[in-house]
């Protein structure tokens, strides 16, 4: 088994809930109908707030994006932060309560194409004795020694203003995407996606691993 990307994200539940409740907030549009319905059902079952469960799902989305970006290495990213179709990356529990990443529409197609290209390049590189160049890099520095998070390339020339808070990326982001039949848990994707969610007290967190044979 080879690990191509690893992503982790932590969400402040109180801050997230506050932004979710802001008048005119479009944050709910970043989730699919199925995600919102499932979060509401879990909140009723657990007798807690919907924001707790949506925060965990948001952490899962962010962690998946980071893992995907790491897997692509120096390659081109298929989306920018302004047009990323967040609702097409669903974090859904199965009948046993186990979370899975389900990709639909544009994200599913882009993931297949981009990761397929990475795997093809890795195979050629390994055959030539060069190893898996650019896959799973843990370097935190970009060109010139500047810090390069997994989002650095996606930000492009319009960095996120830190004064907007930890969820600045969400504001003004596209919240809709065409829906297709592809699923991150199905065998038609070029790599496996594993996700683990946790929410304890004021913090929700997620870890995502993208791997393959």
From TrEMBL:
Residues 6-109 form the 4'-phosphopantetheinyl transferase domain. Pfam families: ACPS. It comes from the Bacteria. Signal peptide: none annotated. One of its GO terms (molecular function) is magnesium ion binding. InterPro entries: 4-PPantetheinyl_Trfase_dom, 4-PPantetheinyl_Trfase_dom_sf, Ppantetheine-prot_Trfase_dom. One of its GO terms (biological process) is fatty acid biosynthetic process. Transmembrane segments: none annotated. Keywords: Magnesium, Metal-binding, Transferase. It comes from Bifidobacterium callitrichos. This is 4'-phosphopantetheinyl transferase superfamily protein.
């Amino acid at each position: 088994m080879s690990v191509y990307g690893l992503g982790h994200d932590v969400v402040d539940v109180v801050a997230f809930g506050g932004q979710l409740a802001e008048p005119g907030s479009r944050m709910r549009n970043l989730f699919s109908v199925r995600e919102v319905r499932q979060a509401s059902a879990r909140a009723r079952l657990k007798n807690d707030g919907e924001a707790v469960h949506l925060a965990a799902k948001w952490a899962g989305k962010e962690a998946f994006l980071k893992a995907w970006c790491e897997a692509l290495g120096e390659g081109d990213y298929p989306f920018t932060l302004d047009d990323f179709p967040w609702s097409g990356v669903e974090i859904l529990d199965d009948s046993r309560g186990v979370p899975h990443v389900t990709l639909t529409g544009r994200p599913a197609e882009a993931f297949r194409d981009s990761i397929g290209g990475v795997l093809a390049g890795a195979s050629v590189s390994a055959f030539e004795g060069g190893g898996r160049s650019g896959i799973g890099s843990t370097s935190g520095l970009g060109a010139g020694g500047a810090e390069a998070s997994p989002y650095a390339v996606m930000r492009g020339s319009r960095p996120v203003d830190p004064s907007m808070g930890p969820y600045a990326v969400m504001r003004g982001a596209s919240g809709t995407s065409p829906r297709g039949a592809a699923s991150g848990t199905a065998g038609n994707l070029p790599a496996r996606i594993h996700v683990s969610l946790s929410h304890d007290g004021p913090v929700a967190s997620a870890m995502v691993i993208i791997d393959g044979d």
